[in-house]
Amino acid sequence: MSLLGEIEGDVVPTEAGRGDDGGVLRFITAGSVDDGKSTLIGRLLHDTRQILGDQLAAVSRASRRRGFDTLDLSLLTDGLEAEREQGITIDVAYRAFATPKRKFIIADTPGHEQYTRNMVTGASTADLAVVLVDAGKGILTQSRRHAIIAGLLRIPHLVVAVNKMDVVGYAEEAFGRIRDSFRPFIAGLDFPRVDFLPLSALHGDMVVERGGRMSWYRGRTLLQILETARVDRAGNDGLFLPIQLVARPEESGCAGRRGYLGRIESGNVRVGDTVTVLPRGRTTRVHGIRVFEGAIESAQAPVSVTLFLEDQLDVSRGDVIALPGRQIRVTSGFDATLCWLAEEQLTRGRRYLLKHGARTVKARLGEPVHRVNVNTLEREPAESLGLNEIGRVPVQVAAPLAWRPYREHRVAGSFILIDESNNGTVAAGMIE
Fold first, then answer.
1. CA distances to 13, 40, 65, 79, 97 from 85, in Å
2. Deepest in the core among 79, 98, 298, 430, taking most CB within 10 A?
3. Which uninterrupted H or E stretch holds 44?
4. Would you state the torsion angle of the CA atoms of residues 145, 430, 357, 93, taken in this order, to the nearest 10 degrees?
C-alpha cells in the first residue's frame, strides 16, 4: 500500500517526488464590513472568465430581486442563506480559479468584528492577504485589526487595496491620503512585502484590467500582483515530515518493512539519508521512498510520500521524521499565542486536547501572560481570554511534542485546542 497522492487535490506530484503545487497561491480578502471583499472576488472570477453561463444567469436574477440594474458580483461568493439575506459575509467562503500563469485558492473572510475567529481560520494557511479599505470611509478599526491578525499569523505578503475609488472620483489625492496614513501602522507589523494599490471592484479598474480612469497609477493590477507573488512553502528549513499513518509490512509495498506515510512539510529527503524520529530521538537511515508513481530516489516538499527506514523503530502516528541537528525542539511545555475561538472563556488549569499535526495530546493552560490589543498592538494584562481575543498563554502537554517556533515554521509551530466535552475547536495556537 502506497500513499495515493494528496487528498486536497491542489497539491500533486507532477514529477515523481518533486513537490510542485503548480504555483498555487492561497490568499485571503479581509477588511471592514461593506469594504467590497465579496464584490472584489466576484470581479476576479468574472473578469478571468471563471463563471459558467448558468451561474451568471442565477446571479443576474438574484441581482434584479435585490433591486440592482447590473450584476451584483458579491453573490458569486456569498453562498450562505443568512449572508444573502443580510448582505454580509458570515462564514469563510472558499473559491478557486486559474489563469494561464497560476492557480489560486481564495478565502473571503468576514468583516464583522464578532466573526474575527473566522478570519483567523481563513488566514491560517494564506500566502498573501488583501486588506481592503473603503476610499470613501478611510481606515477603520477593522482594517487595522485584520492587518494585525495577518501579521500575527506571519502572512508574508500584504496588499492594501483602496477600493471604491469610483466613490471619490478616482482621485489620486484620496488614495495618497489613505496610503500615507496607513503606511506607518503597517511598518510596525514586519511584513516582508507590502503593496498599496487603488481599485474599483464594482467597475473593474485595476483588478484584472487597468481601466482608463486611473492613469496616474503606474503600478501593477491586483491580478498581476497575485500572479507574481512568491510562494515558498517548501522553504529551506530542513526536513519536517509528520507521520500520518504506519503501514504494516504486508501493506507497505516494500517486503518486510513498515511504511511511514505523510506529507513533507519542508525540506527534502533522499534514499540513504540519516534521519531522526522525534520525539524519541532515534536515528536511522532512509531505505526507500515511494510516491503514487512508484519508487523514487528523492522527494521534496510539499509532496506526500511513503518512507521506509533501515531499522525497525518504534514509530507512531504523530511522530516526526527530520534531519539530525536541525533546530527542532522536543518539550512538554511552551508559551503560545492563542486566538480564542469559543464562546466560553479560557479556563486556567482546565484540560483540553491539543492537536499538533497528526498528534493529539492532553494539555493544560496556564494564566495568560498578556492579551494583545488588536487595535493598537499593545500588550495588556489578562486573567483569561474570551471570544476573538488573542493572547500569550503557557501550555503544558502530557507527552513531548517536536516543534519549531511559528515564526520560523508555520506548520511545525501551529496547533489547535479542542474541548473534550463536545469536540469543538476552542483556539488556534502559534508556538512562541
1. 42, 19, 12, 10, 26
2. 430
3. helix 37-47
4. 0
Note whether 45 and 97 are within 8 A (CB): yes
Question: 116-125, 159-168, 233-242 — which is least confidently predicted?
Answer: 116-125
Cβ-based neighbours of 141, under 8 Å, separated by 6 or more: 32, 113, 375
Cell of 39: 464584490
Segment 7-66, tens digit of pLDDT: 222 333 334 555 545 478 999 988 887 788 888 988 888 888 877 666 666 666 766 777
Find cell 510539499 and name the residue: 302
Residue 394 bridge partners (DSSP): 335
Domains and CATH numbers, the chain: 25-228 (3.40.50.300), 240-322 (2.40.30.10), 329-431 (2.40.30.10)
pTM for this entry: 0.80
Q: pLDDT tens digits for 238-293?
A: 899 999 999 988 777 777 899 999 999 999 999 999 999 999 999 999 999 999 88
Per DSSP, what are the bridge partners of residue 339?
390, 428
